[in-house]
Amino acid sequence: MPSEADLEAVRSAALCLVNRERAANGARPVAINEDLERAAQEHSESMVSGGYFEHTAPGGSGFLSRLQAAGYLTSTHVLYNVGENIAWGSLQDATPASVVAAWMASPGHRANMLNPEFRDIGIGIVPRLPGSLGAGASGAMYTEDFGVVL
Length: 150
Fold this sequence. Notes:
Oligomer: single chain
Order of helices and strands: HEHHEHHEE
Low-confidence stretches: none
Number of strands: 4
Helix content: 25-40%
C-alpha cells in the first residue's frame, strides 16, 4: 500500500513494471522526465483534492494544457506524441502491481503503456483517495503521463 513515506519506492516500482511490460512486448524502456512527472503528480493531487476522477479538471484544464504548464510542451514543439493513464485503487488494488495489471487489461491504457514511440514518462501518485471513491478505504490515485517530442 503506498504511503507518504514510500512514494519514491512506489514510483520506482511502477516504472519498473511499466518497463517490464514494454520489454516483453518489444518496446524500448521509458525514462522519467521531470516535467511529465510534475504534470502527473499535480494531476493526481488535483483529482484527490478536487474529488474527481477524470482527465479534465472541473475547471476545464486538460491534459495538453497541463503538459504545457509543466514545460514539457512549448510553442516550439509542433511534433509530439503524448498519452495519459489514470487509475485509483483501494486496499490491495492500490499497489503498483495491481494498477499496472489493470492498465494492461484495458486496451486503451495498454496501448499507451506499450506505444513504441514514447520515450518519456512521469508518474504521479497520491496515497489517498477523494471521499467520493473507495468508500472510505485507504488507497492511492495514479497518473501516468507518456510522451515524445520530435
